[in-house]
Amino acid sequence: MEDVVIGEGSSAAVNRFAPFASELDWRVACWAIQDGIGHKSFDRLMAIPGVRAVAEKLGLSYQNIRGLHKIVDAVPPRATWKKRELWFKNDPEDKHIVHHRDPLEAIKTLLGNPAHAEHVVYRPKKIFSDASKSERIYNEMWTGDWWNTVQDRLPSGACVAPVIIATDKTQLTQFTGGKTAYPVYLTLGNLPRAIRRKPSQQACILIAYLSVSKMVGKQLTKKQKSTRIQQLFHDSMRIVLEPLIEAGKKGMEVTGGDGKVRILYPILACYVADYPEQCLVTCAKYGTCPKCQVNDDEMGGREAAGWRTQRRTSKLIRIAREKATSISNFQELCKADNISGGVRHPFWEDFPHCDIHMGITSDVLHQLYQGVVKHLEHWCTSLMTTAELDHRIRSLPPCFGVRHFKNGWSQLSQVSGKERKDMARILLGCIMGKAPSQVIVCYRALLDFIYVAQYPTHDDSTLQYLTNALDEFHANKDILVDLGIRNHFNIPKFHSMLHYEECIRNFGTTDNYNTEMFERFHIDYAKEAWRASNFRNELPQMTQWLSRQEKIVMRRGKRRSKKLWMEETRTLG
Fold first, then answer.
1. Alpha carbons 227 and 232: distance in angstroms, whole number
2. Which of 54, 92, 446, 561 minimizes the number of CB atoms within 10 Å of its CB?
3. Helix count and strand count (H, E) for the chain
4. Would you give the end-to-end CA distance of the chain in angstroms?
5. CA distances from 205 to 25, 110, 277, 538 (A)
6. pLDDT tens across 367-390, in order?
């Protein structure tokens, strides 16, 4: 947004609030846009004779919400929204609409934000605990091995922009209606994690709403609908992320918030999603591991199998495509290699310096709390009756920082991630004196793993703690089979713990890519946007509402940064 000069000659004044007429004009617009004032409410306020007279005296440049929106819409957006329609050849009337923005524009906006200029990192680092460099330290994304490896492949002087993508379908309605949204988020590893995870910092950008239309057609079987959903997802993501391919190969010029121009290579580094979407993204057969080649009946072992690679998966799909005589035959050939068989051309197959299987990150919220802890709680009911478990929970003494479940756990329904964390804190105390010692050891080892995995900083010693906790669990887990609690441990979320150490070494600690951060963004980017619509054909309204919110917030950030710069200049002068 450029400054506008008002008047002529030496007395000309700079309007720092253009395209608004004055600071008051700007502040009233901020109030109306950010506080969610209803359109009709604002119009009724401005229609009151006394208020209209005051507004004219104060020099407001608009008399209603339509005039205000016209001024806000004239401000250049962070990235322009576009719309694409997709359909299947044998069902052309059933349209699937994707609303999306150019990810390269989003990257330029993130790196060009002057409020974050002094925090952006363009070079990887290797941090050690002492001068002997015997023990490596991992925290931010630029301390991991992945960034160092990719940096070595690029031309001298080039910078890496590690792109972090997250997708997660979310419910918009609470009780009735069944409305959902499918947002796609983009952020960068160049920004510190403390900035990325705060919605107020605007360090994460919504780049797309994928289609949530249902697959209609009575003639379609459940398997055919599943295949179509996979194809639609990959075709949609190819449309959204396709600009990253060319930019990742040739680089692009980006002007940073500090005013310097750099050659940047945006590389897809991490893909944050829960387990069903991890399988959907990587084309892995559901029930298998999206990161390694282990079979679904061997997932309970202590060691991981050979790594899946993007090149290997693409090759297997291509071979199956060439050999297949029909769609069902193609799917059978793929599933023999633990590939879903629903997609012939994955969206990630041409991305440079990218391995989608490596990029699938660990997920503390869904894998550990909504996975491992959920299983541990369920196993408690095999060690004792539900009534006894509730009685033990109610009998625990109150403790600061620990939630007291006055009605036990049996009355809880749709347990949230926060409640799982509260339950994990008292889990071990609930089974003491009732469960055999080996069961206690299993529970303690898994809880140790969960808490160590969330350390904000890791080194070689703390990563060894993770290994030791896993070793202890696998050494004692047979007691759960002997007691009849489990028949096997071929559970994908338990198997995922084998990959935490590798993920931390590659991309830094788990708080760099935990899904909990993006779950929070649903409130601002999906739920609030939906409530601001009239609930009919809502996606165009949601994108427009979001764009206006971003313009106001970014304008405020630029004004704050400019004010700080002027204060520093006066101080230095």
1. 9
2. 92
3. 24, 14
4. 27
5. 27, 8, 20, 19
6. 999 999 999 999 999 999 999 999
